[in-house]
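Schema walk-through. Below, the input block comes first and the output block second. Nothing else is stored per chain. Lengths vary across the set, and this one has 388 residues.
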Amino acid sequence: MYHLRRLSALVLSLAIAPLLFLPTPAAAANEDSMPLVLSSASALLMEKETGTVLLQQNAHQKLEPASVTKIMTLLLVMEAVDSGRLSLDELVPVSAHAAGMGGSQVYLKEGEQLSVSDLIKCVAVVSGNDCAVALAELVAGSEEGFVEQMNQRAAELGMADTHFVNCTGLPAPGHLTSAWDIALMSRELILRHPDIQQYTTIWTDSIRNGAFGLTNTNRLVRFYDGATGLKTGFTASAQYCMSATAQRNGMELIAVVMKAPTTAQRFQDASSLLDYGFANYALITPQPESPLAPVDVLLGRSKTVQPQLQRECHLLVEKTQADQVTTRVDLAQDVQAPVDPGQTLGEFQVYVGNELRDSVPIVAAQGVDRLSVPGLYYQLLRRLLFAG
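--- output ---
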């Protein structure tokens, strides 16, 4: 009974634990202590896995995003691809509306057909407005319908500073977002749809059987160590914007800059943010010090059940704290059958110094049925026969 009471209390504590360990990005970055001098009007640095904001400057200021808008366009397209609603090989006929887009383009002609994959590549690499509209029409039937989906998805992601008017980022009254919101949609894209990097890391490529060359508008892809994307933008009113992503030593960062005065200052600000993150932080994945031992099962068809962590623990720490990380395992000695798959058996706690930073449930890797009455009788009989 002691173990059952102990386990019940443990289950209750674990039910509350997720509320205690949700990421609190705002607490991680104080705008008043910005250690960098940036040229951009607004900026933000976020770590991808945990969503922690490391630095911010005017991060909620509503500004024009220019073609950084296309991160949401790519997100909706990749969601359609990964769900099976679209195929990368599917040919897309170009409408007159798509072919008539101005600004950055690959000069699609009405009636021309390109694959979904080629259109994604053109959006990611050269910011093709015509290609973005062609994809929007494929997904939603019209650009207007697609924009409704963009705003709905923005609301789902908590992008409270955002209102989209088109899928391209071409200037339009009321088409606004913030560095904070750009980071949110950037994180969703690279975290849930890592295949996008097959496109965003391209430096040079071509379409139309090599007849039309493409060079990435994001020069960090070539010149910044570990760059993985993501999207640039420019209009005369928005000035120079970008969401830059890069990965080193298993940690991926998102640096957003908005309204930089020049393209060189845009890339310099993004690089400075990324440099700061990589120099000062590390992402670690703590594990129990020894393998989790099987837990005895009372009155079960199997004598034990194998425990396992419910999820991986990803912990973002300052590099100066990396040697202060310790772990603790609190695991039930036994449990009474039946045991359900995924049933809580204990918890794995991770500390930085004396601060509890994460708590991961330890759960049953498989189920164990309760012995039937004949089974109980048979087990008792075996014990009696072999007792002497």
